[in-house]
UniProtKB/TrEMBL annotation:
Family in the record: Belongs to the diphthine synthase family.
Function: S-adenosyl-L-methionine-dependent methyltransferase that catalyzes four methylations of the modified target histidine residue in translation elongation factor 2 (EF-2), to form an intermediate called diphthine methyl ester. The four successive methylation reactions represent the second step of diphthamide biosynthesis.
Signal peptide: none
Record protein name field: diphthine methyl ester synthase
GO molecular function, one term: diphthine methyl ester synthase activity
Keyword hit for Nucleotidyltransferase: no
Amino acid sequence: MFYIIGIGLGDVKDITVRGLEIVRKAERVYLESYTSILAEDKLQLEQFYERPLIEADRELVEQDADQILDKSNEVDIVLLVVGDPFGATTHADILLRAHNLKIETRVIHNASIMNAIGCCGLQLYHFGETVSIPFWTDVWKPSSFINKINQNKSNGLHTLCLLDIQVKEPTWESITKKKKEYQPSRYMEVKQAVSQLLDIIKNNEFEGKNYVTQESLCVGAARIGWPDQKIVAGTLTEMANVDLGSPLHSLVIVGTLHPLEEQFLKQFYI
């Protein structure tokens, strides 16, 4: 059996009881290490789970998934994922590979930013389509995600923006020289995402009517599920100057507020 088990957002104890029982009995346990991060490190997880973990980086999960799935039709193999297993398309892909290999699979769910963002007081059923905001480069500055934000806002819906994570990204030299070298890991901050959004608004880089302005209300969320989580609400202009500290960060562009949402959100205003 091949299991993908969500281990939540906060500390080592966020794994479910069922998930922990499976981990302790499995033949091999992999820890996916590039789509998110936990408050604890690998050693702390190993101590609590009472077994060694094999780090699964981007290359292993995306390019050598067969190595993870090897013999999982004979013994139990586990892939641990921060948050919920379906928080990233990568994990759906490896399940499809297992299915094609006639390997039985099972998913153990957990909390993810997709539902935990409700801690800011915005009701989950008032959210529209989620968007991802990537790091810009000197030659690549995508802006099409603002069209989805506009579509959500036109319907009165909030937009959860997932901010870019770059772990084990190959350097340009490694691509051209076929030599494995990686850029330092980096995690987008709310103020970086807001700065890019403000540039898009300033340059009118959107389709149709724009509902997002410098004065649009937004929510910055950092380290949700961790003991030191931080939530701040303000306009885009205000949020561009807010330091929310260490990763991980998320951003919400607020739609039409229900009175209860408005009352709850007041505690986080700048």
